[in-house]
């Protein structure tokens, strides 16, 4: 018994991720936490997308189920679970059945290496970013299988489109990522800092990349300004294309292909595609945050440094939650005073109390020190999520050839250029020496 | 990381790989064959991982499972399945097949028996530290085998140009 | 494999294979059936597409899914009774349909509506033009993937429908006019409400344009897409904004003035290239021009009767008449043959959507599937009018 408790508690003093420390118990705990957190995030995202999009389009969005439609995603989930699961008679049964599983598997597996904090990751692989790109590229297999197995024209065309799209944008995406990996091998600090002690030792590990940003004292989006920014831009465009979201949602363009590759899917299988799409969005946003926006690091680590500022920034998570709680209370008070709305008012009030309690708990230093990394990471990712919704509300859809043109003729050369320039910048001292020697 | 139950996982992945390989050639439906090939490739990636070569495993997944196989499927999906279902699966060159199989088996046995002689111990540089695997691959490719690497990339470039010339009627 | 025939068939098929192999690679022509239940065919249009990959080789429209025999019904109703039926053709622009029919019968009867009625008619039809263009803009943008304009236009279209509702009680199929004048006298505050709407609507057009006109993706999706030349337009009988976007300055409001359009000052916006983007710009400009017309009409709204003297039982003299007006979608014509009885001998409608739809094949050839959607949207067809 003691041995077990020792085994469990031995990790608590470790400064590694559970996977790296080899503690299977905590690995399982983290896996469950990530899975649960992700599911909650997808549900929240579902509600937020509908609400935000609705408010952008001068309407209210879900208002009926729960206060301000808060329970709508749950109602939808139940509806989808209870719905009849239809498989077309001419479909290829096994492949049809496998496709959503592969998509979901790929979307969830990538979270094994996402670093929510210096120790808050399931494991730290030394090929972290490669693993993420590789596994997320497997989801295209699921899409192709779904489109083909449905044995119907529109899904097939959707699958063809999305596979071509994902394969081509992966290249631009990869080039953008490589330029960051190059930068991690530099150990000089500052915007244009190169060389330094231990230079030439780059890393592919997600945690390593964030640590490199910490060490160099600059988020890689600002490194070699504007090169980092361009690389980030390329990645940001390709990640929208990778996840088949507006304005690159040709694979599921409802006005052309009804619903693209998942036209023939219904009920629970369909909801798996939905789940996968949103977790893939969170996954690619996590990559962007980790590679360019300093991962779990708080904003302005150089400008506003010192213990006072650290202290001040550690309050922000708590304040944010208290702010959300205040919104809930405000809206609970504003609810119509009618017996019909009593349950909703109490519900909203209760939700506010929960958020408020979380906020208060975040003021406890012991909690906040452990959790604020996760908060900053989540805050940055949710920024990306908002931009996703914003895109959807604003942009028309690209046409397929235009999409390919953008990928191959704009982003790819840009990525190559950024890569070469980054390499030149990074090797500048050596190049300077070389030039001097030649002259 | 400490290796976990290596022999067990080796035999597991090897079995998956073999089953995948057999399915590739026995399935009549080409899409099923392609999917079985993907399974085999993924199992192979797992075996690379067990050989402390995570970089190679990652590249295997990205390139083969994620890239090349998608293009394979892309083409196969456009082929009429009804037609390919009716075609005969194997051609009947039993003699040549048997000779080739026996020769390959003999080669394997020879290599297994004389492994020490063919690959002297000092020539194999296994870096058990997987952290250095990526760097190791890089310094090998860009150091020792620079020439071969560049030749290979040139070959690929020629292949790309050839594909463009063949596919496009007017450039 | 005991059935000998099965084996035989098997062999024949393999022999076939070799023969087909030569054309195997080229035989990737795909026939896709789009509609009649498809979210982007604006109702029940069915389009059979022949595709080479995503490129359109040709297409064929199958219509008639919404056929209700409106023209035939006309032969069994009196002139007055048939009036509400025409609203159901282009249900998006019901007022224009009513205006066309009423004016045609008036021409047959040789009566003219009094000036006040004429003015109110102009106001309501131009409001209808705006409403129709709003609906077109929303759905067209939705087809191209921009979902937000739809909600903006529907929000603003609501204001027009409110005016209609207050005027005649109906929002969509209004039956606003009677042969010889108006159905109702305008309600109190009509002028003020219309003016309020104009002031409210003017900045809204800018709002729509802000979302789309300079949007890079929108321009890429619409420029040089579905272009049609002026000659082709004229040869096919295409009218309305589609014709004007190709550079032909032809608007029946100016060319053959009806109602009292000749008293109002307005421009005819035309395009240059006849592509989807130009059609978009032309319609946006037309909304602004409609605002101008309505403003002048409200300002100069005369007092007086709203009905001319028409007999209770209409028995137009035997003969035939053709009269056409500029509906939001193009030339809407009515051809009525009278045999001197209370019912028309024959009613024939020239619906703009039906004629414009002919151009779809020409406009889509060589374009991609996604463009077909854009072109169907830009033609602004209403299937109720196409099928009648």
Task: Report on the architecture of this protein.
- The complex is a heterotrimer of chains A (439), B (171) and C (388).
- Chain A has 439 residues and is mainly alpha-helical.
- Chain A has one domain.
- In chain A, α3 packs across α14.
- The longest helix of chain A is centred in the N-terminal third of the chain and has 33 residues.
- Chain A is globular, with a radius of gyration of 24 Å.
- Chain A starts with a helix and ends with a helix.
- The model of chain A has no long low-confidence stretch (mean pLDDT 83).
- By secondary structure, chain B is mainly alpha-helical.
- Chain B folds into two domains: 86 residues, Four Helix Bundle (Hemerythrin (Met), subunit A); 51 residues, no CATH class.
- Chain B contains eight helices and no strands.
- In chain B, α1 runs antiparallel to α2 and α2 runs antiparallel to α3.
- The longest helix of chain B is centred in the middle third of the chain and has 25 residues.
- The mean pLDDT of chain B is 79.
- Chain C is built from 16 helices and eight strands.
- Chain C has 388 residues and is an alpha+beta fold.
- In chain C, the strands form three sheets. Chain C has a three-stranded antiparallel sheet with strand order 1-2-3.
- Chain C is globular, with a radius of gyration of 24 Å.
- In chain C, a hairpin with a 2-residue loop joins β6 and β7.
- Chain C starts with a helix and ends with a helix.
- Chain C has two domains: 56 residues, no CATH class; 321 residues, Cytochrome-c3 Hydrogenase, chain B, CATH 1.10.645.10.
- At the A-B interface, α5, α6 and α7 of A face α2, α3 and α7 of B.
- How many β-strand runs of chain A? 0
Note poorly predicted spans of chain B: none
Q: What is the ordering of alpha helices and beta strands of chain A? A: HHHHHHHHHHHHHHHH
Total strands of chain B = 0
For the record, the count of structural domains of chain A works out to: 1
Distance between the termini of chain B: 53 Å
């Amino acid at each position: 018994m003691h041995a077990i408790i020792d085994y469990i508690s031995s990790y608590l003093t470790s400064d590694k991720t559970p996977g790296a420390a080899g503690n299977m118990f905590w690995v399982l705990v983290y896996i469950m936490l990530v899975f649960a957190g992700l599911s909650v995030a997808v549900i929240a995202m579902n509600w937020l997308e509908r609400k935000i999009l609705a408010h952008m389009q001068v309407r209210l969005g879900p208002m009926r189920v729960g206060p301000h439609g808060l329970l709508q995603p749950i109602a939808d989930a139940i509806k989808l679970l209870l719905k009849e699961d239809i498989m077309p008679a001419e479909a290829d049964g096994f492949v049809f059945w496998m496709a959503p599983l592969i998509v979901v598997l790929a979307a969830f597996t990538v979270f094994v290496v996402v670093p929510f904090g210096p120790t808050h990751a399931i494991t730290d692989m030394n090929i972290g970013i490669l693993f993420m790109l590789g596994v997320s590229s497997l989801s295209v297999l699921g899409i192709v299988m779904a489109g083909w197995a449905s044995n119907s024209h529109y899904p097939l065309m959707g699958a063809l489109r999305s596979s071509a799209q994902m394969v081509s944008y992966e290249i631009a995406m990869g080039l953008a990522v490589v330029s960051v990996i190059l930068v991690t091998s530099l150990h000089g600090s500052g915007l244009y800092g190169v060389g330094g002690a231990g230079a030439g030792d780059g890393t592919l590990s997600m945690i390593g990349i964030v640590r490199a940003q910490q060490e160099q004292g600059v988020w890689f989006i600002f490194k070699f300004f504007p090169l980092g920014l361009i690389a980030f831009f390329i990645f940001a465009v390709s990640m929208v294309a990778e996840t088949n979201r507006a304005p690159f949602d040709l694979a599921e363009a409802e006005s052309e292909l009804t619903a693209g590759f998942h036209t023939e899917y219904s009920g629970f299988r369909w909801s798996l595609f939905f789940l996968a799409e949103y977790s893939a969005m969170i996954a690619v946003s996590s990559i962007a945050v980790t590679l360019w926006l300093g991962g779990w690091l708080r904003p302005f680590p150089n400008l506003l440094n010192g213990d006072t500022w650290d202290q001040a920034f550690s309050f922000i998570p708590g304040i944010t939650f208290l702010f959300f709680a205040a919104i809930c209370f405000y809206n609970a008070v504003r609810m119509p005073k009618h017996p019909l709305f009593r349950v909703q008012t109490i519900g909203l009030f209760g939700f506010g109390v929960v958020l408020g309690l979380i906020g208060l708990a975040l003021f406890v230093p012991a909690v906040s020190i452990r959790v604020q990394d996760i908060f900053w990471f989540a805050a940055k990712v949710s920024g990306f999520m908002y931009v996703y919704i914003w895109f959807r509300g604003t942009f028309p859809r690209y046409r397929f050839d235009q999409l390919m043109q953008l990928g191959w003729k704009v982003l790819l050369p840009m990525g190559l250029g950024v890569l070469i320039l980054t390499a030149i910048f990074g090797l500048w001292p050596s190049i300077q020496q070389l030039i001097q020697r030649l002259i | 990381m400490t290796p976990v139950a290596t022999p067990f996982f080796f035999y597991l992945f090897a079995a998956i790989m073999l089953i995948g390989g057999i399915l590739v050639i026995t399935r009549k439906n080409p899409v099923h064959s392609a999917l079985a090939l993907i399974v085999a490739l993924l199992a192979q990636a797992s075996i690379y991982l067990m050989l402390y070569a995570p970089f190679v495993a990652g590249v295997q997944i990205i390139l083969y499972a994620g890239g090349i196989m998608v293009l394979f499927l892309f083409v196969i999906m456009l082929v009429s399945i009804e037609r390919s279902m009716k075609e005969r699966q194997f051609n009947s060159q039993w003699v040549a097949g048997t000779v080739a199989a026996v020769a390959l088996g003999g080669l394997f046995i020879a290599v297994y028996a004389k492994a020490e002689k063919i690959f002297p111990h000092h020539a194999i540089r296994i870096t058990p530290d997987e952290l250095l695997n990526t760097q190791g691959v890089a310094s090998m490719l860009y150091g020792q085998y620079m020439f071969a690497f560049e030749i290979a990339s040139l070959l690929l470039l020629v292949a790309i140009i050839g594909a463009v010339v063949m596919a496009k009627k007017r450039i | 494999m005991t059935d000998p025939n099965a084996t035989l068939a098997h062999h024949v098929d393999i022999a076939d294979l070799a023969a087909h192999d030569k054309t195997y690679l080229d035989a990737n022509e795909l026939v896709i059936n789009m509609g009649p239940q498809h979210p982007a065919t604006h109702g029940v249009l069915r389009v059979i597409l022949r595709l080479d990959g995503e490129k359109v080789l040709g297409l064929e429209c199958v219509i008639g899914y919404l056929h209700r025999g409106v023209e035939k019904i006309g032969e069994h109703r009196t002139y007055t009774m048939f009036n509400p039926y025409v609203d159901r053709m282009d249900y998006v622009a019901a007022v224009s349909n009513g205006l066309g029919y009423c004016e045609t019968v008036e021409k047959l009867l040789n009566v003219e509506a009094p000036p006040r009625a004429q003015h109110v008619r102009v106001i309501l039809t131009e409001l209808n033009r705006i409403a129709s263009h709003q609906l077109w803009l929303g759905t067209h943008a939705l087809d191209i993937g921009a979902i937000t304009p739809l909600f903006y236009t529907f929000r603003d279209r609501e204001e027009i429908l409110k005016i209609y509702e207050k005027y005649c009680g109906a929002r969509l199929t209004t039956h606003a006019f009677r042969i010889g004048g108006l159905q109702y006298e305008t309600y109190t505050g009509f002028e003020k409400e219309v003016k309020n709407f104009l002031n409210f609507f003017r900045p809204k057009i800018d709002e729509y344009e802000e979302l789309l006109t300079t949007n890079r993706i929108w321009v890429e999706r619409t420029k040089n897409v579905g272009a049609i030349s002026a000659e082709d337009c004229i040869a096919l009988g295409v009218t309305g904004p589609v014709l004007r976007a190709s550079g032909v300055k032809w608007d029946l409001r100016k060319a053959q003035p009806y109602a009292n359009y000749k008293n109002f000052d307005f421009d005819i916006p035309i395009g240059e290239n006849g592509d989807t983007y130009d059609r978009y710009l032309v319609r946006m400009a037309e909304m602004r021009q409609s605002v101008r017309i309505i403003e002048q009409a409200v300002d100069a709204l005369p007092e007086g009767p709203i009905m001319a003297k028409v007999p209770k039982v209409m028995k137009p003299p035997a003969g035939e008449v053709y009269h056409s007006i500029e509906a939001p979608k193009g030339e809407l014509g009515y051809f009525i043959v009278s045999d001197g009885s209370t019912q028309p001998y024959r009613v024939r409608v020239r619906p703009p959507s039906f004629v414009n739809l002919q151009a779809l094949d020409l406009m889509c050839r060589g374009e991609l599937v996604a463009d077909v959607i854009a072109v169907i949207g830009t033609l602004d067809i209403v299937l109720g009018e196409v099928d009648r």
